[in-house]
């Protein structure tokens, strides 16, 4: 197993694909990257799907003068963007992304979702079988049956499943309830939790009087349930006060306490600073229990359009 930091930093928003807005430039993201690296947060999660290479290009620009062993790159094969008719579709995608980022290897490489599964997991296994510098191989947005199937396919080619990445937060614990977290622990598989902050909805920044800006996909998802989110954010604020930290640090500390590796989207230096502080917070069992109790009582459906319930 690689020595990974407690938190990965997500560059989804850097793709300017409309999910978070479209105003993130290299100029305002470079200080964010620099402060993260200064604090040892060197694991960066991206995908070609994030702006059709935009996120990868921005990140590559920041990496170009750094020693290769000073950072870790997590990238993804998105089935919907592959040429399904080409026998070399997997190689074409991986090698195109490596060229785009001016890299000779990835540290983690994922199947982004289950479209075309298990075909693409098989193609991933064939591509990396027998190669040197094999990254950690992972699957994202897979349920437990699909995760086990992917692991079996990789094992048949002398490889193994090393990582799972799913949406996991206080208001979406289906990966825990379905047994995925337990399976990962039992099989030495990293579980990466994405959208721990629900794209800012659990940061304390937004409420009924201050909704998310119109026009973004996250506004459509969260603004209709801001009344319920206010209740959870009030509980987060109470626990944050006890620990003398900001609200946004508590959901991240919760995800770490649940033995997952959260991916935190960063577009401001303050996001990185929050992540750094969150790593040192030790929530008490009763605090975790109360947070989960309040969250469950709200009945919020946080499954997004590209996802499914992890049964």
What would your notes on this structure say?
- The protein has 311 residues and is of the alpha/beta class.
- It has one domain: TIM Barrel (Alpha-Beta Barrel).
- The chain has twelve helices and eight strands.
- It has helices at 26-38, 54-63, 89-101, 119-128, 144-156, 174-177, 180-186, 217-222, 226-243, 249-257, 269-278, 285-298, and strands spanning 8-10, 43-45, 72-77, 108-111, 136-140, 163-167, 190-194, 261-265.
- Strands 1-2-3-4-5-6-7-8 form an eight-stranded parallel beta barrel, surrounded by five helices.
- β5 (136-140), α5 and β6 (163-167) form a beta-alpha-beta unit.
- α1 packs parallel to α11 (269-278), α9 (226-243) packs antiparallel against α12 (285-298) and α10 packs across α11 (269-278).
- The radius of gyration is 19 Å and the shape is globular.
- It starts with 7 loop residues before the first strand and ends in a 13-residue tail after the last helix.
List the keywords.
311 residues; TIM Barrel; single chain; globular; alpha/beta
Helical content band: 40-55%
The radius of gyration is 19 Å
Task: Write the CATH fold name.
Answer: TIM Barrel
**Shape assignment:** globular
Give the CA-CA distance, first to last residue. 27 Å
CATH domain class: Alpha Beta
Total individual domains: 1
What amount of the residues lies in strands?
Answer: 5-15%
Number of helix segments?
12
Mean pLDDT: 94
Identify the CATH homologous superfamily: NADP-dependent oxidoreductase domain
**What is the H/E string?**
EHEHEHEHEHEHHEHHHEHH
Order of strands side by side in the largest beta sheet?
Answer: 1-2-3-4-5-6-7-8
- Secondary-structure class: alpha/beta
- Largest beta-sheet characterization: 8 strands, parallel, barrel
CATH architecture: Alpha-Beta Barrel
Uncertain stretches of 5 or more adjacent residues = none
């Amino acid at each position: 197993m690689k020595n990974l930091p407690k938190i990965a930093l997500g560059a989804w928003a850097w793709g300017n694909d409309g999910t978070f807005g479209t105003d993130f430039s290299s100029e305002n993201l470079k200080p964010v990257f620099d402060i993260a690296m200064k604090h040892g947060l060197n694991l960066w999660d991206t995908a070609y799907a994030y702006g059709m290479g935009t996120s990868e290009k921005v990140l590559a620009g920041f990496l170009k003068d750094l020693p290769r062993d000073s950072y870790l790159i997590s990238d993804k094969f998105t089935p919907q963007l592959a040429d399904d008719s080409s026998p070399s579709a997997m190689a074409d995608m991986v090698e195109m992304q490596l060229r785009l980022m001016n890299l000779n290897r990835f540290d983690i490489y994922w199947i982004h979702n289950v479209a075309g599964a298990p075909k693409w997991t098989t193609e991933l296994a064939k591509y990396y079988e027998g190669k040197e510098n094999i990254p950690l191989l992972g699957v994202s947005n897979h349920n437990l049956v699909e995760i086990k199937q992917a692991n079996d396919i990789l094992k048949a080619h002398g490889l193994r499943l090393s990582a799972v990445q799913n949406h996991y937060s206080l208001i979406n614990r289906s990966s825990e309830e379905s047994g995925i977290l337990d399976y990962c622990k039992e099989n030495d598989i990293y579980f990466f939790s994405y959208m721990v902050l629900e794209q800012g909805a659990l940061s304390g920044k937004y409420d009924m009087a201050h909704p998310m800006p119109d026009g973004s996909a996250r506004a459509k998802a969260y603004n209709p349930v801001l009344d319920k989110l206010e209740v959870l954010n009030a509980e987060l604020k109470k626990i944050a006060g006890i620990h003398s930290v900001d609200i946004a640090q508590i959901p991240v500390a919760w995800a770490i306490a649940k033995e997952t590796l959260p991916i935190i989207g960063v577009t401001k230096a303050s996001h990185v600073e929050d992540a750094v502080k969150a790593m040192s917070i030790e929530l008490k069992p009763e605090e975790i229990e109360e947070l989960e109790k309040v969250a469950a009582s709200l009945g919020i459906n946080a499954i997004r359009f590209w996802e499914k319930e992890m049964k």
